[in-house]
Structures are given as structure tokens and as C-alpha cells.
Amino acid sequence: MSKREDTLAAMRIAGYHNDKAAFTRLLIENRIRITVADEAWLTGRKQRANGMKCACYECSRGDSKM
């Protein structure tokens, strides 16, 4: 995976967890267009709303509260 793909995946995870601070940090630190970043955020929010399981490290450990 490229750095851009990794960043977009992290933005989707931030959207899934409604983590605005992480999303903003990723947006500022990386050269991602705001329209693409917003789409990644909304994809994460939709995944959570549809009951899709999160694959991030914290959630896959099993001790997360989300």
C-alpha cells in the first residue's frame, strides 16, 4: 500500500470512531484534497452505521470499548 492509501485508510478509521482530532492531524500532515478526505470520513461513518466491524489495531485486540 502507498502512503496515500494508508492515510485514506486511517481517515476512514477516524471517521468510523468519530475521531475529529486524528482526522484533522492526518489532513494537515498529508497532502490529501479536502474532498477526498471528506469522502473517506463519510465512508467510515457509513461503515459504522451499517454495523461493519472495525479492523483497526485497537478494535481487533478485543479490549476496545467501541
Strand content: under 5%
Total of helices? 4
Q: What is the H-and-E element order?
A: HHHH
**Shape estimate:** globular
Summary of the model, kept short:
The protein is mainly alpha-helical and 66 residues long. It has helices at 3-16, 20-29, 34-49, 57-61.
List its traits.
66 residues; mainly alpha; 4 helices; 68% helix; 0% strand; globular
Question: How would you explain this protein's 3D organization?
Answer:
The chain is 68% helix and 0% strand. The protein is mainly α and 66 residues long. The model has no long low-confidence stretch (mean pLDDT 91).
Question: Could you outline the blueprint of secondary structure elements for this entry?
Answer:
Layout: H1 3-16, H2 20-29, H3 34-49, H4 57-61
